[in-house]
Design brief:
Number of helices: 11
Order of helices and strands: HEEEEHHHEEEHEHHHEEEHEEHEEEHEEE
Radius of gyration: 24 Å
Strand order of the largest sheet: 13-17-18-8-14-15-16-19
Number of strands: 19
Helix content: 10-25%
């Protein structure tokens, strides 16, 4: 907590009795992360090589947001100084003032509100950081022992533990523990899978993930019949996440909506326009235990709470940071952590195993090329999808390469679009009718 204490002392002094009047603060906000992490990996079937050595690291870093007495703002990334220099922070304060800017809507620092409790730490991960890290090495050994003999395997495991500190000049002082566990592996760069949460993976989850990826890898060894115009496209959960991140999440940003740079206008939200099929709802939920997208308070000091972005296909609200909320005339909302904490729900969702049995003619898309080049506001896409798995009569029969053309916003509005629940992901398989042809 050294960084937090030093920053609090600096900013409190600058607010109460600055050495220079031009450095007087009227308000401020601090966010600091303390973390320790252990990681190891595999590259080309070799554990602990020069590319993936076992490692331990720790760090303390954060950011500050300042409102000066003259009404201007500054923000900066901060770290502990390498040596004990009494002039370090006063010099930093002067540099922050030189970089100040005018943004009247951003000067609001929320007052403290009651917080909801949410589980964010797994004590088993704390024990790994403390030295009981055999579970990580045992997992890597198991991967290499069980991998398909001809496969070239890549993989990585990371366990992290730390603290998050949020302080504001309005009186908020929150510190809480959080953990993180990331595990992923791939075969021949063709198929892969992972697990990302704030808790350790359970043995049955580890086994399910392994069986799923090995089966996909075996399916890639066989050539499958080409797709046809009636072939159903099924996006894997990771593809659903990528498509939401590219085409949906940006269009729900309050800043974009207010500036008229998104697919939906402010009037669309106020009128609760129907934009998705009525079976679909979209929400941000940071209160789910031990999910990576969960948190107790935003970096701006806003308590975590569940926010529905679209309910039964109808727009409800964009996600609003404090500045956006001031401009919108509403309270700040929950915020996504990337696509973490974002949930897409369909009223008729069924388990993937059940949905797969009903697919007569389909193709499972595991990845695409060039998604980041697609225009987010229109929702239109034209994508090459190598390494897809062909599905006929409810079974994976081999690999194929396809090209997809369509519009993702239209996909979410179509009555033919369905979802299937993934056991290891918070986002579903998305089953759509869209343009598809064999490459």
């Amino acid at each position: 907590m050294k960084l937090v204490a030093q920053l609090e002392d600096l900013l409190y002094q600058s607010q109460q009795a600055p050495k220079k009047e031009e450095l007087r603060l009227s308000a401020w906000r601090i966010l600091v992360h303390e973390s320790e992490a252990v990681s190891l990996g595999i590259k080309d079937n070799s554990p602990g090589s020069v590319y993936t050595p076992p490692s331990y690291r720790q760090g303390e870093s954060g950011e500050v947001f300042l409102v000066w007495a003259d009404g201007t703002c500054s923000q900066a990334i901060v770290q502990l100084p390498f040596k004990n220099d009494p002039d370090y922070w006063p010099k930093e304060l002067e540099q922050w003032k030189l970089a100040s800017y005018e943004d009247p809507d951003a000067t609001h620092i929320p007052s403290p509100e009651p917080l909801e409790l949410v589980a964010l730490e797994d004590r088993a991960i704390e024990q790994i950081i403390a030295g009981k890290d055999e579970v990580l090495f045992d997992q890597v050994k198991q991967w290499l022992k069980d991998r398909p003999s001809e496969a070239k395997m890549q993989g990585s495991i990371q366990a992290a533990w730390g603290y998050r500190h949020v302080r504001t000049s309005t009186g908020l002082a929150v510190t809480y523990q959080q953990s993180q566990f990331i595990s992923w592996f791939s075969f021949d760069s063709l198929v892969g899978g992972g697990f990302v949460k704030r808790r350790l993976i359970r043995p049955e989850e580890r086994e399910d993930l392994w069986v799923q990826i090995v089966n996909q890898y075996e399916g890639m060894k066989k050539e499958a019949p080409p797709v046809g115009p009636q072939t159903q496209v099924i996006l894997s959960p990771s593809m659903t996440e990528d498509m939401l991140g590219q085409f949906v999440l940006p269009n729900f940003s309050g800043d974009r909506v207010i500036e008229g740079q998104g697919a939906f206008s402010k009037e669309n939200f106020l009128d609760q326009k129907l934009v998705f099929h009525p079976h679909f709802s979209l929400l941000i939920d940071p209160l789910r235990p031990l999910e990576l997208g969960s948190y107790m308070v935003t970096p701006e000091g806003v308590p975590a709470h569940r926010t529905v972005l679209a309910r039964d296909g109808l727009l409800q609200t964009p996600y609003l940071r404090v500045k956006d909320a001031v401009r919108w005339g509403a309270k700040p909302t929950a915020l996504p952590q990337g696509t973490g904490g974002l949930y897409l729900k369909h009223q008729a969702e069924v388990p993937w195993e059940e949905a797969l049995q009903g697919v007569e003619d389909g193709v499972l898309v595991l990845s695409v090329l060039g998604l980041h080049t697609q225009e987010a506001v229109s929702g239109s896409y034209s994508l090459s999808a190598p390494h897809c798995l062909r599905i006929l009569k409810g079974k994976i029969v081999g690999r194929t390469d396809v090209k997809l053309t369509g519009n993702f916003l239209a996909d979410l509005a179509a009555p033919t679009t369905k979802t299937a629940q993934a056991s290891l992901s918070n986002l579903p398989y998305l089953m759509i009718k869209t343009g598809v042809q064999t490459l």
